Amino acid sequence: MAIDPVCKMTVDEKKSAATSEYKGKKYYFCAAGCKKAFDQNPEKYLARKN
Known about the structure:
The protein has 50 residues and is an alpha+beta fold. It has helices spanning 32-40, 42-47; strands at residues 2-3, 10-11, 18-22, 25-29. It has 2 helices and 4 strands, in the order ββββαα.
């Protein structure tokens, strides 16, 4: 299981709504909206620790 970096939901990698790759790492999203937000500003979501 992965954690959606935007909303922090648990996401099954096999059933994720969307994925993005950033700096060589793949991220999984619960919805297209979370992917869109992440793609616009990935550092904003990766800098947050909680």
